[in-house]
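Input sequence (65 aa), recorded before submission:
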Amino acid sequence: LSSSITVQEAYKILNLDMNKKISKEDVNKAYIKIQKKIHPDVSPETSRLSSIVNEAKDIVLNDIS
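Predicted structure, token format:
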């Protein structure tokens, strides 16, 4: 999986602190909070942003596993 965002960026996007112990639950909560604000159903022009947030979630989950 080649990614356009770094692990650090992924944490920033989800508003998570890299230096703290983060659980999958933390990641999912952060993800849902952001997606509620930017979901394409809410606003079509945010679909690119939404896909970036999806990618960030995958990267962070991968990083903590």
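Checked by second reader. The CA atoms of residues 8 and 51 lie 17 Å apart.
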